[in-house]
Automatic annotation (TrEMBL):
Its cofactor is FAD; (6R)-5,10-methylene-5,6,7,8-tetrahydrofolate. Its EC number is 4.1.99.3. Belongs to the DNA photolyase family. Belongs to the DNA photolyase class-1 family. This is Deoxyribodipyrimidine photo-lyase. The keyword Manganese does not apply.
Length: 493
């Protein structure tokens, strides 16, 4: 006989980019309603590669998955792993899994890029045909896409009014993370979860409780160690990062733009793979700021605003599907005569432009799979404005190399800087890499760290060095590039 707190026998939690047990909406509701519970993670390397996900991102995801499996085991919830090729194979696979494991409902947290939405709709339809429900919970954003609307019921296209509306809606209820699910009783004799299952799919796919150490297309050999490009993976590491940042968040606004300082949260890789939730981050900030969203401590309210930017870009993906198709938000900007110079692009990507702050930023990305946010704008502006190279080349390169490559935020950031997106920087705003360098790395400390061949220069020369045998000449006239970009944008009809 089922207890009053449960209404289902067997449930299955389908994990994706939500690799944690704390404040996990799908896991919480599944644990509350199901007597027995299992979990599954489905890797689709071909689809991941087609979405330009890179080695660092996938290795970090797999490392977090290892820790998640261990945590779930302490609650008697087995985590299964299945490797397919593409998203298109997932509906058939889940149909077989639910039938073989006698699952009544699949619980998952919603994902919002267009291909992921299509996959999830196909899964729901396939399972429904077989009498199995698929529940998708809102978990990646503070409020589900579609919940924040103008007075006319339209989606917001500008950040500031979106932020005001979201805060007003969120202020009506407490930001309260969900508890960890209770430990499940061990299955009765004869009802144990099997260690593995052979599925009737192409290539004789096997559902197993062993997470592999290799995946097609990706170098994930570091995943088992739990440290990827110097980043410690998992939910415990995410919570430690959050606590450390809470101790210095008050200075965030004053120091966040200086890349040589350790003044940002470094939480983006964990938010991206779901090792920590947006609600946990927001709760920390609001608690320290006595519940104030926009007033109180300037550093805290500034960081709250940055979190809301993540929500804004995710909401846009749902309301404007063409953003998932490689198209600019502003259709007219597709008329821009972008340049497709592979040599210039390669020099930008390697950090060999001859502009020290740009080179230091790109080398940071290539070395640790992460880049300081101020510098993301500087290098994006240099590529899309000074070089007039298609922003999509840069967007793709970032996704292929960032450990925190969130599609919505990456696309939104690139389109903002390239002046092709919603609420974008005005087309005549072009970051001057030299003044940015002098302002935010005044002593050249960050440049010296990643461009050591300039270490002998004084604090003035290091931003715009003289001709040197061991450092490349500047690949473009920054001033002329700015003038050209403004001209082509101003000529748009």
């Amino acid at each position: 006989m089922r207890s009053r707190s449960t209404s289902l026998g067997r449930g299955l939690v389908w994990f994706r980019n939500d690799l944690r047990i704390q404040d996990n909406s799908a896991l919480y509701h599944a644990g509350k309603r199901c007597e027995q519970l299992a979990a599954v993670f489905i890797a689709c390397p071909d689809s991941w590669q087609s979405h330009n996900e890179g080695d660092a991102l996938v290795a970090f995801r797999m490392a977090c998955l290892h820790e998640l499996q261990t945590q779930l085991q302490t609650r008697n919830i087995p985590l299964y792993f299945l490797q397919l090729s593409t998203f298109s194979q997932v509906p058939q696979a889940l149909e077989q899994i639910t039938r073989r494991l006698k699952i009544e409902t699949v619980f998952a947290n919603a994902e919002y890029p267009l291909n992921e939405q299509r996959r999830d709709h196909a899964v729901r339809d396939r399972l429904r045909e077989n009498g199995v429900a698929a529940e998708y919970h809102s978990d990646r954003t503070l409020l589900p896409p579609g919940a924040v609307r103008t007075g006319a019921g339209e989606p917001y296209k500008v950040f500031t009014p979106f932020k005001r509306a979201l805060i007003q809606l969120c202020a009506e209820s407490e930001i309260k993370p969900l508890p960890v699910p209770r430990k499940k009783p061990l299955p009765k004799e004869g009802a144990h979860w099997p260690k593995w299952l052979a599925l009737e799919l192409e290539e004789n796919k096997k559902l197993t409780q062993k997470i592999p150490e290799h995946l097609p297309h990706f170098a994930i050999d570091t995943a088992k160690s739990g440290i990827v490009k110097g980043w410690k993976s998992g939910e415990k590491a995410a919570q430690k990062r959050l606590k450390l940042f809470s101790e210095r968040i008050s200075g965030y606004q004053a120091e966040r733009d200086f890349p040589a300082l350790d003044s940002t949260s470094h939480l983006s890789p964990y938010l991206n793979c779901g090792a920590i939730s947006i609600r946990q981050c927001m709760q920390m900030a609001l608690n320290l700021n006595q519940g104030h969203w926009q007033s109180g401590n300037a550093g805290i309210s500034c960081w709250i605003s940055e979190l809301i930017w993540r929500d804004f870009y995710t909401h846009l993906l749902v309301d404007f599907p063409h953003l998932s198709k490689g198209q600019p938000f502003k259709a007219e900007t597709d008329q821009i005569p972008w340049r497709y110079d592979k040599d210039l692009f390669c020099r930008w990507s390697r950090g060999e432009t001859g502009v020290p702050i740009v080179d230091a930023a790109m080398r940071q990305l290539n070395e640790i799979a992460w880049m300081h946010n101020r510098l993301r704008m500087v290098v994006a502006s240099f590529l899309s404005k000074n070089l007039l190279i298609d922003w999509r080349w840069g967007e793709r390169y970032f996704m292929q190399h960032l450990i925190d490559g969130d599609f919505a935020s990456n696309n939104g950031g690139w389109q903002w800087t390239a002046s092709t997106g919603t609420d974008a920087a005005p087309y005549f705003r072009v970051f001057n890499p030299y003044s940015q360098s002098q302002r935010f790395d005044p002593n050249g400390d960050f440049i010296r760290r990643y461009v050591p061949e300039l270490d002998s220069l004084n604090n003035k020369e290091i931003h715009d060095p003289p001709s040197m045998a061991n450092y490349p000449s500047v690949i473009c006239d920054v001033g002329a590039g700015r003038k050209r970009a403004i001209e082509v944008f101003s000529n748009l009809k």
